[in-house]
Amino acid sequence: MKLGVFLPNGQNGYILSTASPQYVPTFDHMLAITQAAEEIGLDFILSMIKFRGFGGATKFWDACLDSINLSAGLAAATKRIELYSTVPVLGIHPAVAARMIATVNDISKGRTGVNIVTGWNKPEYGQMGLWPSPDYHDRRYEFAADYLGILRALWRDGRVTHNSDFFQLDDCECFPTTGREIPIVSAGQSPKGVAFTARHADYNFVTAGPEKLRRIVPPLHAEAAKVGRKVGTLALVTIVAAPTDAEAEEIWKDIVAHADQAAVMNVMRSAGMDTNTDGTSKHFLEGLTAPVEDGNMAFMGFPLIWGSYETVARKILQHEREFGVSGMLLTFVDFVPGVREFGAHVLPMLRDAEAKIPVAAE
Ligand SMILES: Cc1cc2nc3c(=O)[nH]c(=O)nc-3n(C[C@H](O)[C@H](O)[C@H](O)COP(=O)(O)O)c2cc1C
After folding, report:
1. Contact 329, 234 (CB under 8 A)
2. What CA–CA distance (Å, rounded) separates 40 from 191?
3. Where are the beta strands (DSSP E) in the chain?
4. Of 51, 122, 195, 284, which has the maximum CB count within 10 A?
5. Beta-carbon-side half-sphere exposure of residue 334 (alpha carbons within 13 Å)
6. What is the distance in A from the centroid of ligand 1 to the CA of 355?
């Protein structure tokens, strides 16, 4: 199973609560997390980008380090781990993004990947005058597919001529080429987002608790199979592991009890503007009252895997064996100790179980 860490390069990571560590992201912190992940043998890190946070008492995501620049710095200081940068299609022209990613690819000696995000929070892009049209919510995956086509052409050939509703490029150059296909992940959960990933990406992120995973993973694979492709599914989760179940429970209960309601409401307001329904916006709405296992908004709607080290290892294994996910993107309450603790106590049990009964190839 492919395992990665979702770097908390937005303020306070992925928890909207005054009971979790409060921090403004720094390169040193992100590097410490990435090095810890590399040391324990995880496969990749992914960083995000938000141009406008959600405020509240925790100033949630108000500060955010740029994802591509961050990857460049991390690439120079690591040797093995893969580094996924988030490319915001509304924020960077594709010919500029292609060159930035080709640069990280060079620095990392071929360890870079891209998380392609359409931008779905109107205030975030509206504040810069970058919300392109009133129908962008509905057309965003069309835009992203067009954008990705340009990225891939430039990475492969170093040159493209392109005329579409969205972009005009006239014999546009971008060298060096990457000399390898850049892996693409996407996180759209709406029907249009899923269709985009099935057609264009290598991995799809899902944010769903156990019951929903059982229901949604097979159709995701079927959607890709329809167009003759194979797309892996990576489940996004927050890990709360402790020596005992009771200790882990105490940690998450305290976090939920101190949820930053103002920041949660600001997330909801922004998601409420989304006219492309049935995706993340709906999940957030459900997350206001959802159990933590399904994704409560105190944890940004990310499902929690919590318990003793044994419990956590067992639940992760269940994701692989029963729900059919090919990997997981992990977040933690306090990342550096969280990753180390995971490496010391959970990962050995997981790898041991995987070695004893190998998972059948998909
Ligand atoms: C793992 C993961 C990472 C994401 N990273 C970002 C990001 O960095 N910036 C962003 O604006 N949206 C990000 N998103 C949001 C998605 O890209 C997508 O826009 C969102 O899920 C809404 O699309 P949907 O309505 O199709 O679900 C992320 C989502 C997930 C699950």
Report:
1. yes
2. 36
3. 2-6, 44-46, 82-88, 112-117, 159-163, 168-173, 184-186, 203-206, 232-242, 304-308, 327-332
4. 284
5. 9
6. 33
Q: Is 256 exposed, middle or buried (0-12, 13-18, 19+ CB in 10 A)?
A: middle
Q: Is residue 360 part of a domain?
A: no
The answer as to whether 361 is a domain residue is no
Q: Kindly report the protein residue whose alpha carbon is nearest to atom 30 of ligand 1.
A: 187
Rounded Cα–Cα distance for residues 359 and 66 (Å): 37
- Residue 360's pLDDT band, with cuts at 50, 70 and 90, is low
Q: What is the dihedral of CA 338, 343, 349, 353, to 10 degrees?
A: 110
Q: Is the CB of 49 under 6 A from ligand 1?
A: yes
Q: What is the pairing mode between strands 168-173 and 184-186?
A: unpaired
Looking at this protein, which amino acid is placed at residue 257? A
What is the 8-class DSSP label of residue 297?
A: G
Q: Which atom of ligand 1 is nearest to the CA of 283?
A: 27
Q: Domain with 297 in it: what CATH number?
A: 3.20.20.30
Read off the pLDDT of residues 319-346 as tens digits, 9 standing for 90 and up.
999 998 999 999 999 999 999 999 999 9
Candidate from 18-27, 202-211, 300-309 with smallest mean pLDDT: 202-211
Mean pLDDT of the chain: 94
> Domain containing 78: what range?
2-355
**In angstroms, rounded to a whole number, what is the distance separating the alpha carbons of residues 192 and 199?**
11
For 330, what's the count of Cα atoms within 13 Å in the CB-facing half-sphere? 34
pLDDT band at 362 (very low <50, low <70, confident <90, very high): very low
Q: How far apart are CA 184 and CA 207, in angstroms?
A: 18
Ligand 1 pocket mutation, candidates 66, 115, 142, 236, criterion most atoms within 8 A of CB: 115
H/E run at residue 308: strand 304-308
Count of the separate structural domains present in the chain: 1
For residue 267, pLDDT beyond 50: yes
Helix axes 67-76, 27-39, angle to 10 degrees: 50
Q: What is the pLDDT of residue 283?
A: 77
